[in-house]
Amino acid sequence: MRTMGRIGVTGHQAREGLDWAWTRTKVATILQEAASVDQALTCLAVGTDQLFAEEALAIGIALTAVIPFEGYDRCFEGVGLETYRNLLARSARTVIMERTGTDQEAFLAAGVRVADDSDLLIAVWDGEPAAGLGGTADVVAHAVACGRQVLQLNPFSRTVRRLAG
Known about the structure:
Layout: E1 6-11, H1 20-33, E2 39-42, H2 48-58, E3 63-67, H3 78-90, E4 93-96, H4 103-116, E5 120-124, H5 136-145, E6 149-154, E7 159-164
Parallel strand pairs: 1-2, 1-5, 2-3, 3-4, 5-6
Antiparallel strand pairs: 6-7
């Protein structure tokens, strides 16, 4: 068991065929087995980020919400918005990034911040290129280039592999 003070996440929001039950189980297991985790970092996006936040809070890990820009809640609707607001209210710390460009540029900056501030980055990702700037592939590429520990959970093939670190 390796000591990890801060674990961050990046990953898919919604994709057909993604095994959410498998993903939740794997994320929960990683969080439970990592020693001395005192902070979980997430942008609270729908899908992976919210699942990760729920699992971290369930075992008493303090949540740090890295918010891409003021007014980020406009990017959510329905249950996703309700879950976002609930998790944000339960966060021990909230970092609101200064907006310097488009939404996608802000998403990338927030994802990079999560990666930079993490001892381990969990990437729930199929390994494919990002659909737009700031996607999971971009955040993973940054983390790997910086030598961060990255653990890829592929929710389609149900495989886990270490990409860096």
